[in-house]
Design brief:
Blueprint: H1 2-67, H2 70-94, H3 96-113, H4 120-138, H5 147-182, H6 185-201, H7 203-206, H8 212-217, H9 232-242, H10 249-267, H11 273-289, H12 303-328, H13 330-348, E1 351-352, E2 355-356, H14 364-382
Antiparallel strand pairs: 1-2
Helix pairs in contact: 1-2, 1-4, 2-3, 3-4, 5-6, 5-10, 5-12, 6-9, 6-12, 11-12, 11-14, 12-13, 13-14
Amino acid sequence: MRKIGMLCMSVLAAVLVLAACNSNDGASDTKADAKKEQTDSKQATAVKKDVKQMQDELATVEKDIAAKNDADVKNSAAAMHKHWLAFENNVRDLYPLLYTDVEKYETPIFYMSKRDKLDYAELATNAASLKTSLEAVASAKETKAKTSEVLDKAVDNYSKYVVEQTAAFVGDTKIFADAVKAGDTAKAKEYYSKARVYYERIEPIAESFGDLDPKLDARINDVDDQTEWTGFHRIEKALWQDNLLAGMDKYADQLVTDSLALQAEVGKLKLEPKPMVAGAMELLNEAATTKITGEEEAYSHTDLVDLAANVEGSKVVYQAIIPALNANDKDLTQQIDDAFVKMEDTLEKYNTDGNYVSYDKLTPEQIREISNQLSHLSELMAQTGKIF
């Protein structure tokens, strides 16, 4: 009886200790939650302060753009960019979707301002959009969402991007085709690259529609029968190698027809998050291994236009999944962000007044640097599979 009593006392004591521990654990959790909320609140307050400062900096940039003062635009845009880099991580943590909108307009302003010849109309357009994006951050409240919901939003955002890019592709392809048919070589060369930028940004999507991609984008080595060769590169050869547009009308008309067929397919497209990321990874990998050879634009040597567009299209996918990636691996988010910045800096070295240097002017060492950075980006994007 004494042993039973002692056992009961021991059990009771254990229960009381356990209850006390649980109570302390609960208190610890509550304190931890409160501490996190306090930290988040401080971070949000700091972000609002930084955004206000950036809005003032943007006002200066807009004033300098309106005055068309090159030196002032370069200085004010550089100062704003330096400040954005100092606090962008906080925006990415708290408001990842809004962060993407700011990046979309701030980064082009910075890089365009560094060029010798400034495109003031384009700078003004981006500045106006950046102003709207900063206003959204200034009034934003942090929200929490499930990964699945975030990925659904990512797919929705990327789908809209693909639709927009395809529409722009169709428009510039029509201008290109009309210039070819009119025998306007200068305009045809200009719009050859303009149209291809949109195509290269969404190439993984275009490649998913059967024979549309070969009809639009096949190189001469991709076809068994050269009489069946159509698309951009068929006309590229006529423009840069043959210097003769006679007989190109039928290829120009077919290009327009095929671009409209692509747009129709895109309109029916149902995307999923994982294939979306896989496409971006594949795009970077293909650029690093096959396009880097210079075979893509064998006659015009405008390969850097394609590579830059591939990077831009992949970055849009990355930015779309940032909210989900943040919740799983912030370190990877930072690594990918840094890799894109490094890649953009490298490509910008070969851009003069908005035009990339001819690819055949690059040294083997410069090409290897670009290839290595593209491969690194592809490897990092592959690691985002953990969020699915």
